[in-house]
Design brief:
Shape: globular
Helix content: over 70%
CATH superfamily: TspO/MBR protein
Oligomer: single chain
Distance between the termini: 49 Å
Order of helices and strands: HHHHHH
CATH architecture: Up-down Bundle
Strand content: under 5%
CATH topology: Ferritin
Number of strands: 0
Length: about 150
């Protein structure tokens, strides 16, 4: 049963991320934006997010198995909703300032998840550390794009 739960969580994260990525591809609007010097090439995002979605799914499955009705599970669900909301806001609706508000809340939810799991399931918490680092970078990138445009 644990393996099935892990498969479902990873499939939801990875599948949702892929679907939202395909539905909200950076288009002409994004290409026309002024970007900071540290903006990575577009090809970097898909592989990074694919790995992160697997880590997010594993951490979520572990939390679901051991702490289904916990603050950590609520933080996990919150971060997933915010994560899935960001691309449609930024790329779909072309609203970088609103997307910035969402990504700041996403970063906070990631920190809450890490803190909530740190003593109870250090492995799940550590799975969120690269995610938190990437989202912190993405927050800076989002803020820079909002500022420059």
């Amino acid at each position: 049963m644990r393996v099935l739960i892990h498969i479902v969580f990873v499939a939801i994260c990875l599948g949702g991320g892929v679907l939202l990525g395909v539905a909200n591809m950076p288009g002409q609007w994004y290409q026309s934006l002024e970007k900071p010097f540290f903006n990575p090439p577009e090809w970097v995002f898909a592989p990074v997010w694919s790995v992160l979605y697997v880590l997010i799914g594993i951490a979520g499955a572990r939390t679901f198995i051991t702490a289904r009705s916990s603050r950590a599970m609520n933080a996990w669900l919150t971060q997933l909703v915010l994560n899935f909301l960001w691309s449609p806001l930024f790329f779909g609706l072309e609203m970088p300032v609103l997307a910035l508000m969402v990504i700041v809340a996403l970063l906070a939810a990631i920190v809450v998840f890490i803190a909530a799991r740190w003593d109870k399931d250090r492995f799940a918490a550590l799975l969120f550390v690269p995610y938190g680092a990437w989202v912190a970078f993405a927050t800076l990138l989002n803020a820079s794009i909002a500022y420059l445009n």
